[in-house]
Design brief:
single chain, about 190 residues, mainly alpha, two-stranded antiparallel ribbon, 5 helices, elongated, PduO-typ, CblAdoTrfase-like
Length: about 190
C-alpha cells in the first residue's frame, strides 16, 4: 500500500459523495477536528500516571469519537448512516456533572493553565471551540449531522471541567482572572 495517492495534487480532496477543494468549509471543519484530536493525543501523554488511568481511557474513547465527528463531517450526501449520536453527548454531560464535584467551586473565569496536563487540555478545548465555529459556518451552507455540533459544544465544556480536575488531583490551584466578575453561580442561589 502506498501512503500517497497524488489525487490531491490539484488542490481537491475526496469526501463521501464527491470531491471538493481542500479549502472547502467541510474540509476546514473536519481538519480542525483532526487537529484537536492530535493535540488531545499529545495531552494524553501527560496523563499516564496510575491516578489518571480512567481519565486516559475516557480520552481514548473521545479520540475515537472525534474520528466519528470528522467522518460525519466528510459526508457530502448522506449516503451512509451518521456515527455521532445523542448517547455520545449524554456521556460527556454525565462526566461533566461528575467532574464539577471533583474540583473546587468556581465563581470566576480562570486562566488556562496550571499543570502541564491541564494546560494541554485547555489548548485542545480552544481548538474544539474553533472546530465548533467551522461547523456552524458549514451548517449555514450545507446539511450536516447536527449531533456533531452538539458534541463539539459539549466536548469543550468537558475539557474545561477535566482540566480543573487534573489541576485539583495534582494540587495545582486554578488562577482566577483578576478582573472577572462572579460569572458562575449555583443554580439554587438567587
Amino acid at each position: 500500500m502506498k501512503l500517497y495517492t497524488k489525487t490531491g495534487d490539484t488542490g481537491k480532496t475526496s469526501l463521501v459523495g464527491g470531491r471538493v477543494d481542500k479549502d472547502d468549509l467541510r474540509v476546514e471543519a473536519y481538519g480542525t477536528i483532526d487537529e484537536a484530536n492530535s493535540l488531545l493525543g499529545q495531552a494524553m501523554t501527560l496523563l499516564t500516571d496510575k491516578e489518571f488511568e480512567s481519565i486516559y481511557k475516557e480520552l481514548e474513547r473521545i479520540q475515537h469519537e472525534l474520528f466519528d465527528c470528522g467522518g460525519d463531517l466528510a459526508v457530502v450526501k448522506n449516503k451512509i448512516p451518521y456515527k455521532v449520536t445523542e448517547d455520545m453527548i449524554t456521556f460527556l454531560e454525565k462526566r461533566i456533572d461528575v467532574y464539577i464535584t471533583e474540583a473546587p467551586p468556581l465563581e470566576r473565569f480562570i486562566l488556562p493553565g496550571g499543570s502541564s496536563a491541564a494546560a494541554a487540555l485547555h489548548v485542545v478545548r480552544t481548538v474544539i471551540r474553533r472546530a465548533e465555529r467551522c461547523i456552524v459556518a458549514l451548517k449555514k451552507e450545507e446539511e450536516i449531522n447536527e449531533q456533531v455540533l452538539k458534541y463539539t459544544n459539549r466536548l469543550s465544556d468537558y475539557l474545561f471541567a477535566l482540566a480543573r480536575v487534573v489541576n485539583a488531583k495534582l494540587n495545582v490551584k486554578d488562577v482566577e482572572y483578576e478582573r472577572s466578575a462572579i460569572v458562575f453561580k449555583d443554580k439554587n442561589e438567587k
